[in-house]
Amino acid sequence: MKRPVKSKCSQIIVVLVLFSFAATTILRSAETREQGLEVIRLWKTTPPAPNMELTGEIDTTKPDSNLVADQRVIRLGNVSNPTLTVHRPDQDKSNGTSVVICPGGGHYILAWDLEGTEVARWLNDLGVTAFILKYRVPSRDREGRRWISAVQDAQRAVSAVRHQAEYLNIDPERIGILGFSAGGETAALTAYLSVRQYAERDAVDQTSHLPDFNILIYPAGLVNKNKNGLQDHIQIHEKSPATFMAHAFDDRVPVEGCLFLMHALKNKGVASELHIYAQGGHGYGLRKTKSPVTTWDHRCADWMRSQGWLSDFN
Fold this sequence. Notes:
single chain, alpha/beta, Rossmann fold, nine-stranded mixed sheet, three-stranded antiparallel sheet, disordered N terminus
């Protein structure tokens, strides 16, 4: 049987429809491949204010920079174009849970491997899809909100992942956020600020920016200036996401931040978990040493399993 011949007009319509679908599939933004990984730009145009003119992205690590567990750390700076780098688990391991990773770096640089790619590999081993957030650094704000551009990017990231859950093969109700140090502040504010920190731009922003669970490892920026409670802009309520925290007693970043946060979560009935280790300092990521603090990932995996985040969603 002879198939009907399509007119040029109908062919053009089909092409336009397919193009429109493809644009939606990649979160209405540019998608590239970097070392075999999917990299998604978060903003179609200029990110929301505040912004600054910067030279190209650079690794700011110097030969005499401090090593972590005898290894170098990639310190990525001058980030102007926020992206998500997608790390997928093996297909037979994937459980539908996903996590947006926020590396630390004092809102000045991003510890890209220590608190990014190495963490993504760990999550992949658990069957979790990982999205490393390359948020804007250094901080753009001059009014005391050094976290604002990072949180804008993180809110957009969670919305983008949830908006394209089917395409990404994840469960839209099992999206977590994980942050270290300044990235921990970013993750915390993304989880606890119910108001989006920028004006809605498109369909992505009509999707909730709030994560379903929250993981904070030696988070910074939680304690107020008087050191007697949380920052005023951190508001915990009954629907705040369950949170896992790990911190060392001797960390230069006050451990009280986690204590105040745990107290606030307890008062609102948000079942959460906190581990404080006697020693360990700051900025160890997942790199193993003799210090027990570097086993936090085992405690975190146990917590995720107990909460049902590691069970198969199919």
